[in-house]
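Review this:
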Amino acid sequence: MLGQRQSLHFSFPHSIFSKEPRKCENREGHQFHMGPFEEIPVGNFLTCCNKSSVAKGLEFFSKNRRDLSIYLHPITNDTVKDHTSRIGWIGPSFPLDESKFYDYKGEPPMCW
């Protein structure tokens, strides 16, 4: 994958939670969404890591994902390619909402 930072989307169906989980708003580099967010049509946990820590993140999610899907992509200055042709999956893939892709050409966003 290209890019200095990677985005890992740990996706899940809303039904796996019986209670409202704690939000990760105080954890730098993480976002928790109970429902669809941007191109992801299901609830998801978004985390971002630097290139040097991607291997550890992939190892953790590979070992702990159970039956959930992991959608990953680089973060560069070409967001459309990052979310279409540069993606990878751990576990089953599912269709993304392409109407939510935006064409951002500029400095890649930082990992929160």
